[in-house]
Amino acid sequence: MSNVSLDDKTMARQNGIVQPLLTDLYQITMAYAYWKSGKVNDVAVFDLFFRTNPFQGEFTIFAGLEECLKFLQNFHYSESDIDYLRQTLPSTIESAFFDYLKDLTCKDIILSAIEEGSVAFPRVPLLRVEGPLIIAQLLETTLLTLVNFASLMSTNAARYRMFAGKHISLLEFGLRRAQGPDGGLSASKYSYIGGFDGTSNVLAGKMFNIPVKGTHAHSFVTSFSTLDDIKCVTLQHAETQEQCNLLEKSLDWRNRLSLILDASPEEASDGELAALISYARAFPSGFLALVDTYDVKRYRFDGLHRQHMNGHSGYNSNCGTNGITPAIRSRCGYTVERTLRSGLLNFCAVALALHECGYTAVGIRIDSGDLAYLSVLARDTFKKIAETFALPWFAKLTIVASNDINEDTILSLHEQGHAIDCFGIGTHLVTCQRQPALGCVYKLVEINGQPRIKLSQDVGKVTIPGHKKAYRLFGADGHALIDLLQRSSEAAPEVGQKVLCRHPFQESKRAYVIPSKVEHLYKIYWKDGQITTAPKPLSEVRERVQASLRTLRQDIKRNLNPTPYKVAVSDDLYNFIHDLWLQNAPIGELS
User: Fold this and answer.
1) Distinct helix (H) and strand (E) counts, the chain
2) Spatial distance between the Cα atoms of 353 and 359, rounded to a whole number of angstroms
3) Average pLDDT score over residue span 480-503
4) Among 108, 215, 433, 472, fewest CB within 10 Å belongs to which?
5) Cβ(484)–Cβ(568) under 8 Å?
6) What is the pLDDT of residues 51-68, one digit of tens each?
7) Pairing status of strand 510-513 against strand 517-520
8) What are phi and psi for residue 364, nearest 5 degrees?
């Protein structure tokens, strides 16, 4: 096994706050108690795993491995760390303990892990940490914080990617809503791993080489009041280099389009037109404009209509207008205000003016209102213009939608037949609102070669003891069938050979599996103070996520009532667990 030396070109810089003191106090107090008890040479095995898949789903994406390796690589208590601990811990702490901490590194730690970007399942350890008890214990909190949110965020993003479909672009717009700067950076990184196509976060783009995307805000539009606010009206032609008067051309096109689109120029905001012209001059080859600043579709209900809609099986009052299907709209007799008459007219006028100057506009962003209806309205408008003026490209302009989008919104929009090409998603993505924590745990499973088990009246919290290996067994159809945990002393399962797979705690749940393929899930990533298997670049981890998801049957990945994926133990491990359970469980006394 060759050692791998990684520099800043192959591994992004380590977050400066990820250091040994980024831990819980009890890790350090336990370390002292271990040290005081003469357990310096004890060797432990810890498993890091989770008990339940997030978001009411049946899979999880493992992420955060690269950050864990950087943490091990840089683990060292600085002089200021030691000084702080001397001041903070009780005065009875022996001075020799601080000398011991000062010399601690991870050179004797062995870290094994599932490949980053792989689908993972409850009880199957994501990481296995082996080495001196004290240092392995001190790693716990930091490893958990590096894996928990990374895996939760990647899973959330992967679910959005599945429900949006592979032909729709997804952009992460969540920095301003994230839980602080570190939460924002992590969300950008791991949403990209999970399948998003880009981020608005410029620093994340620089640090992780993620494509950065963005348009402009409503404030840009409202900062212009009249056409007089345009400081320069000309734009150099892309091919001839001649100066084009973008204002004159835009006004001319707005008048021509008003006849075709049944929209009077008087209904369009001149301030908005001035803003769009100014933005087009700045980005003539990347003109993607926000078009809902001044008029958005609004629904006016009286109390009777609202009551009727809430009682309708196809309407969810929590979804706003996105929950209203066209069929319901036609039956319920409410008043609708005409929409996008300013923004869409002004955008199309500027886009056609740009075309006369040799440039091709990109599209529009809609940030409010009934996204299904408005996107179809915009697409129909683009098609009508494309047909009228023989400009096929105009029909294919990009429509981006934002506005507090979540999984349910996307599924509802699909049902309504939207015409959106790209979703910009922020709050619900980066804060993981449906489930804000994954709940990974870090449990001792072996000490000095002796297995350890945690018992609980809640069977879900009973740990699977000992040093284990994990395998993924595939069925005849090529899909992953079951994950199997075995004692490390057992021979690996073989293709074509019958394997008895058992539920770890329910005696009657067992089945034979004849795998068509066997995948060993663990690789050693850190040993002898060195990275032994280089972590993959972010782009390859991203590809791994999608490849790994393709190995799962569709019923396991569906949104509603997904089929649970099976995790089993070998017959040998099953018997080992229950023998150890009986040895450690206290015997009650009746009187």
Assistant:
1) 20, 25
2) 9
3) 97
4) 433
5) yes
6) 999 999 999 999 999 999
7) unpaired
8) -130, 160
Residues 88, 90, 94: CA angle, nearest 5 degrees: 110
- The DSSP bridge partners found for residue 268 are none
Please state, for a pLDDT cut of 90, what percent of the chain lies above it: 83
Instruction: Please give the pLDDT value at position 526.
Output: 98
How far is 20 from 340, CA to CA, in rounded Å? 54
In the chain, what are the domain boundaries? 25-196+435-584
- How far apart CA 189 and CA 182 sit, in angstroms, is 11
Q: Name the strand (E) or helix (H) holding 559.
A: none
Q: Give the strand pairing for 198-199 and 169-172.
A: parallel
Q: Could you give the angle at the alpha carbon of 305 between the alpha carbons of 300 and 306, nearest 5°? A: 80
Compute the distance between CA of residue 262 and CA of residue 264 in angstroms, rounded to an integer: 7
Q: Count the neighbouring beta carbons within 10 Å of the beta carbon of residue 481.
A: 23
Cβ(373)–Cβ(366) under 8 Å? no
Helix (H, G, I), strand (E, B) or coil at 208: helix
pLDDT tens digit sequence for 2-53: 455 554 444 555 678 899 999 999 999 999 999 999 999 999 999 999 999 9
Q: What is the DSSP letter of 322?
A: G
Which helix H or strand E contains 512, and what residues bound it? Answer: strand 510-513
For 251-314, the three-class secondary structure string (H helix, E strand, C coil) is HHHHHHHHHHHCCCHHHCCHHHHHHHHHHHHHCCCCCEEECCCCCCCCEECCHHHHHHHHCCCC
Separation of alpha carbons 150 and 65, rounded Å: 9
- pLDDT surpasses 80 at 378: yes
Q: Name the nearest CA neighbour of 220 among 160, 271, 167, 162.
A: 271
* Contacts with 492 (C-beta within 8 Å, 6 or more apart), sequence order: 469, 471, 486, 518, 520
Query: Burial, 212: exposed, middle or buried (Cβ in 10 Å; 0-12, 13-18, 19+)?
Result: middle
Q: Strands 335-336, 243-245: parallel, antiparallel or unpaired by DSSP?
A: unpaired
- Residue 211's nearest CA partner among 538, 568, 509 is 538
Residue 570, φ and ψ in degrees, nearest 5: -70, 165
